[in-house]
Specification:
Enzyme class (chain B): translocase
Largest sheet of chain A: none
Oligomer: heterotrimer
Number of helices of chain C: 11
Largest sheet of chain C: none
CATH superfamily of chain C: MetI-like
InterPro entries (chain B): AAA+_ATPase (IPR003593), ABC_SmlMolc_Importer (IPR050093), ABC_transporter-like_ATP-bd (IPR003439), ABC_transporter-like_CS (IPR017871), Mo/tungstate-bd_C_term_dom (IPR008995), P-loop_NTPase (IPR027417), PotA-like (IPR005893), PotA_ATP-bd (IPR017879)
Function (chain B): Part of the ABC transporter complex PotABCD involved in spermidine/putrescine import. Responsible for energy coupling to the transport system.
EC number (chain B): 7.6.2.11
Radius of gyration of chain C: 22 Å
Number of helices of chain A: 14
Largest interface: A-C, 85 and 94 residues
Structural class of chain C: mainly alpha
Helix content of chain C: over 70%
Shape of chain C: globular
CATH superfamily of chain A: MetI-like
CATH architecture of chain C: Orthogonal Bundle
Helix content of chain A: over 70%
Shape of chain A: globular
Structural class of chain A: mainly alpha
Chains: A mainly alpha (294), B alpha+beta (359), C mainly alpha (260)
Family (chain B): Belongs to the ABC transporter superfamily. Spermidine/putrescine importer (TC 3.A.1.11.1) family.
CATH topology of chain C: MetI-like fold
Distance between the termini of chain A: 47 Å
Number of domains of chain A: 1
Order of helices and strands of chain C: HHHHHHHHHHH
CATH topology of chain A: MetI-like fold
Number of strands of chain C: 0
Distance between the termini of chain C: 43 Å
Chain lengths: 294, 359, 260
């Protein structure tokens, strides 16, 4: 009996601090819900509905998309950029997170270096890469000075520029969840593994890495979903021919082709939601968004 | 000041399909120090929360001085309460914390300051009013919480494991202080703890709770010397349980056969001859027959084999085995004059009829 | 091995930090075009910024919009966070989903959605439209921050207040509110920065009449890069850093309040 009591007790609701009348919580939440429904949810849904209602209820726009070469090219480009950027942030972010978890005296400095870009607007960071990668930018100047180049190289407005800038902008989203997971690992585990004969690399591969996987998965999900919708950076530093889905949507809105823009929006949103659902199913990391809200 | 009397009758609290409290009835007398003692999940805290008004009973009634308070919200019950981890308001000073209940009652400022200082003196922290709670040690925070709960002169004080977070020495000194406070104030205390020693030290009466029910209620000595069931016998102190078969009664004393020998026990009930029962006796009330015994030697005797001897400082602890294999524990006060027994040695133990209870 | 790790870490941190530092350096350049390293240093571009009517107008508009967003989203978000924890489970999950969804829905989808609807009500090219849309984007930060400080609140503090005779409303005013105040202020700071830095929605809603600072910067970057934007960028980074420092300090203070 007592074994049955313990879990049941844990499930018992915690004592409410205040004795709220039942309607009060709803009255408190209602203004915000009304505000967001009217000014955000309804507008977005109304816009999306254009994809199904133009000119009459139809699925034609979605069916056409499957044979639309512009869409297919842009969609593949967006996905490949997203995958590249995600891998790039993981590759660069993990060592930084590891450094953060091991640093002591230098931790505040590292935190500032990681968090300052995190809180700097995407626009400013994109601009920074325009300065770096421009014809007379730092990278070209250095390469010329070293004699590695004869003439300035075209770096800005290439896919590479987009990828580098996006990796830079999204790095903190990868670093913070991983560092968080690493910090929660009991340091005595690594010592125990070392005591049992594992070398430094063995400890990392068999203890640290597996235990940090929840953070890695959260970071991967965040970066993946965020980079899927990137607009500003590719528009500023990317090439004219390698469009992202977001850029194509903006372009179609400017041409007042609402049905097409709405269809693309629905596809973009569905892709993001599908990836979140997939991660939640497979790895159970759905709370990543709340954890690192920005 | 007169303490409040509290009557719990048929109190129940059910969560969906699980009963946290399943029919608790206790009469708490005016000015009594009553402790609800039990393991976690026994329903003691839920019972206290219902008295305070933070939980609504699913069935039954709570009456204070004969008037039902079930419909009364917590802030109108006028009950003092000390919480686990103190629950001092971290954004207020010590004086503001203690003055909080007075402010709610519209006590004017100068009067409030006087009462706060008085309460601080009562808990032996005079002049601490301007400090922040986090600047105080755990024991000092506990005293502030106590002062805050009694400054408005409630007639009933509830305490939910108030000493749980403190170290052993501090706990013991605060236990004595609580007793003193209880005697000085003369109000009713209801105290919740899972620590039996704490309960035995402080209480007038203890209600031992298990699985949502009161297993036994009584004075500390009563519970220790005459536990009514196996749960109480093992939860309060340590007990040897001897499986036995009833052989009859003699002069109001039960005679039972246990491990091949006849054992006598005090017994209120009348189990039938031939019935299988369990007898309980405390380890420190067993003695080796050839040991230092005040004459005459007690009536119950049993041959045993020593299986393990452990020296624990103030006493020796022996693990013994009776002839039928029943394991027994014997605690003997240690003395350089007493011979230490070895494992494997054969011996005879004895204990008195009054220390043998049917559970 | 350790030296190698330290070197790698330094390199990676340089990759993270240097680009922003670079913008700061460029902003003090005296050259008329974008070049690195700058031939000479001076405050030329800060003077240009302070002397340019359109830049200043955009700055004031952004500050005003962000301030209004702070008021709207903090008020609505705080009330909602208080109620949210006490809603029945099904309703709570649905409401939380709606409130946090702007974190997941791609910016462009929100932007063209509000543009599509707001244009019918004359809300394009007006600061009001920006305030309304930015508030929706800022609310998740307020709600998460306030909810977190609620979750860190010991329910026994509220129980203690009640047992000491405070009414439920009195308990809220005297105990709950002071203890969640740091969380509310952090949420307000997040809301401010969210609105102040927001670009995608502004691109569609600004029109001609309500050009925000990021929108003005965007136009500049697309059509005529001159180092004024470096000066502006540096100023916004400094402002953001100051606000984040304040938020960090408040958070720490809040944690102290919660662990007596």
């Amino acid at each position: 009996m007592s074994e049955a009591v313990a879990p049941a007790l844990l499930a018992a609701p915690r004592a409410p601090g205040l004795n709220w009348r039942r309607a009060v919580p709803l009255l408190l939440v209602a203004p915000l819900l009304a505000f967001m429904l009217a000014l955000y949810a309804a507008p977005v849904l109304a816009m999306l509905s254009r994809s199904l209602l133009e000119p009459a209820p139809t699925l034609a726009h979605y069916i056409e998309l499957a044979g639309d070469e512009v869409f297919l090219k842009v969609f593949t480009n967006t996905l490949s950029t997203t995958v590249t950027v995600t891998l790039g942030t993981l590759l660069l972010g993990y060592p930084i997170a590891l450094g953060m978890a091991r640093a002591r005296r230098l931790l505040p400095l590292i935190l500032v270096i990681v968090l300052l870009p995190f809180w700097t607007s995407v626009l400013v960071r994109s601009y920074a890469w325009m300065v770096l990668l421009g014809r007379h930018g730092l990278v070209n100047e250095v390469l010329l000075a070293l004699g590695l180049l004869d003439r300035p190289m075209r770096l800005l407005n290439t896919p590479l520029a987009t990828q580098i800038a996006m990796v830079h902008i999204l790095l903190p989203y990868m670093i913070l969840p991983i560092a968080n997971a690493l910090r929660q690992i009991d340091p005595s585990l690594a010592r125990a593994a070392a005591g049992l004969g594992a070398g430094p690399f063995g400890v990392f591969r068999q203890v640290t890495l597996p235990l940090s996987m929840p953070g890695v998965m959260a970071g991967v999900l965040l970066v993946f979903v965020l980079s899927l919708g990137f607009y500003i950076t590719p528009a500023l530093v990317g090439g004219p021919r390698d469009m992202t889905l977001s850029m194509l949507i903006a372009q179609r809105v400017e041409q007042l082709d609402w049905a097409y823009a709405a269809t693309l929006s629905a596809v973009l949103l569905a892709t993001a939601l599908a990836i979140i659902a997939l991660f939640q199913r497979v790895f159970g990391v759905g709370t990543a968004f709340r954890m690192s809200a920005r | 000041m007169e303490g409040a009397s509290v009557t719990l009758s048929g109190l129940e609290k059910r969560y969906e399909n699980f009963g946290a409290v399943r029919g608790v009835s206790i009469d708490i007398r005016s000015g009594e120090f009553l402790t609800l003692l039990g393991p976690s999940g026994s329903g003691k805290t839920t019972t206290l929360m219902m008295i305070a008004g933070f939980e609504t009973p699913s069935a039954g009634d709570i009456a204070i001085d004969g008037r039902s308070v079930v419909a009364l919200p917590p802030h109108r019950r006028n009950i003092g309460m000390v919480f686990q981890n103190y629950a001092l308001f971290p954004h207020l000073t010590v004086a503001e914390n203690i003055g909080f209940p007075l402010k709610q009652r519209g006590v004017p400022k100068p009067e409030r300051a006087r009462l706060v200082e008085e309460a601080l003196e009562l808990v032996r922290l005079p002049g601490y009013g301007a400090r922040q709670p986090r600047q105080l040690s755990g024991g000092q925070q506990q005293r502030v919480a106590l002062a805050r709960a009694i400054v408005f002169k409630p007639r009933l004080l509830l305490m939910d494991e108030p000493l749980g977070a403190l170290d052993k020495q501090l706990r013991e000194s605060l236990q004595l202080e609580m007793r003193r406070l209880h005697a000085d104030l003369g109000i009713t205390f209801i105290y919740v703890t899972h620590d039996q020693e704490e309960a035995l030290t402080m209480s007038d009466r203890i209600a031992v709770m298990n699985e949502g029910r009161v297993a036994q209620i009584g004075a500390p000595e009563e519970l220790y010397d005459r536990p009514e069931n196996r749960f109480v016998a093992s939860f309060i102190g340590e007990s040897n349980f001897l499986p036995a078969t009833v052989r009859g009664r003699e002069d109001g004393v039960l005679v039972a056969e246990c491990a091949g020998t006849l054992v006598r026990a005090t017994c209120a009930g009348t189990p039938a001859t031939g019935e299988a029962v369990t007898l309980a006796t405390r380890p420190e009330r067993l003695r080796f027959v050839d040991g230092a015994w005040p004459a005459p030697p007690p009536a119950n005797r049993m041959p045993v084999t020593v299986t393990e001897a452990v020296f624990v400082g103030e006493r020796c602890r022996y693990l013994l085995r009776a002839e039928d294999g029943t394991a027994l524990v014997l605690k003997e006060p240690s003395s350089a004059a007493t011979r230490r027994r070895e494992a494997g040695e054969r011996a005879e133990v004895a204990w008195s009829v009054a220390d043998t209870i049917l559970v | 091995m350790r030296l190698l790790g330290g070197g790698l870490l330094t390199l990676l941190l340089a990759f993270l930090g240097l680009p922003i530092l670079l913008v700061g350096i460029v902003s003090f350049s005296s050259a008329t075009y974008l070049t690195f390293p700058p031939p000479e240093f001076g405050l030329r571009w800060y003077r240009a910024y302070l002397g340019a009517r359109d830049w200043l107008d955009a700055t004031w508009l952004s500050l005003a919009v962000a301030a209004a967003v702070v008021v709207v989203s903090t008020l609505l978000g705080t009330l909602a966070a208080i109620g949210l924890a006490r809603l029945p489970r099904g309703l709570r999950v649905a409401a939380t989903g709606l409130i946090l969804s702007p974190l997941i829905v791609p910016g462009i989808v929100v932007a063209i959605g509000v543009y599509y609807a707001y244009s019918r009500y004359g809300l394009v090219g007006s600061p009001l439209g920006l305030v309304l849309a930015h508030s929706c984007l800022a609310v998740p930060f307020v709600v998460t921050s306030v909810s977190a400080s609620f979750a860190g609140l010991d329910p026994r503090l509220e129980q203690a207040a009640l047992s000491l005779g405070a009414t439920p409303f009195g308990t809220f005013r005297q105990v709950t509110l002071p203890l969640i105040r740091p969380g509310v202020l952090v949420g307000a700071l997040f809301a401010f920065i969210t609105s102040f830095d927001e670009l995608i929605v502004s691109l569609f809603l600004s029109g001609q009449g309500a050009v925000t600072l990021p929108r003005r910067m965007w136009d500049d970057l697309r059509y005529a890069i001159d180092p004024t934007i470096a000066a502006v960028s540096t100023l916004t980074v400094v402002l953001t850093a100051l606000l984040m420092g304040a938020a960090h300090w408040l958070k720490r203070r809040g944690e102290r309040l919660h662990t007596p």
